[in-house]
Design goal:
- There is one protein chain.
- This protein is mostly helical and about 80 residues long.
- It has one domain.
- The protein has 2 helices and no strands.
- The N and C termini lie far apart (about 60 Å).
Length: about 80
């Protein structure tokens, strides 16, 4: 979340908190906000899981490529040593 949005959210939460302390907040409205935030949180968690899986796939490929490169380097060294 960018800094501006984070500060705006903090400001809004402070206003909601002050309203609640002065008995001017609607529990129903707050419940709806909680529901929306939980849905967004779940969506973001899903995106993170997908991105993590993709990173794992990339890392697996890179490890395999590195192993192949090491294998080729060793074979080349063995050929040079034979000469």
């Amino acid at each position: 979340m960018n800094i501006f949005l984070k500060k705006m959210m903090e400001w809004a939460l402070e206003k909601e908190e002050a309203a609640a302390k002065n008995c001017h907040a609607s529990a129903e409205e707050i419940s709806e906000q909680i529901r929306k935030v939980l849905l967004k949180k779940k969506e973001i968690e899903g995106q993170c899981k997908e991105q993590t899986k993709e990173m794992e796939h990339i890392l697996d490929k890179l490890h395999w490529i590195k192993a192949e490169a090491i294998k080729c380097e060793r074979e080349l060294e063995e050929e040079i040593d034979k000469k």
